[in-house]
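Sanity check

After download, print the first record. It should look like this:
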Amino acid sequence: MSSAYAYIQLTGHLFKVTLKGINDWLRPNAENIAKGLIEHRKPRPVVDTDGYVIGIKGDGAARMTIADLPKGIRQ
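Expected structure tokens:
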């Protein structure tokens, strides 16, 4: 395997990723990726199939209760 390439096994397909390919994809998408990561780290409820909150995920959520969540995301 050449050091110029990295191979990633994903969903049964083999992708060859080059530095140029990463740069061409990553630079235009970096802002959206950063926004998505920030949003994903926010505390959010984990809801079961019946719509009940069964947990809270996100940074700082270890001791949170439903009352600590903003009203817009409570279920």
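If your output differs, re-run the checksum step. Summary of this record's structure: The two ends are 50 Å apart (CA to CA).
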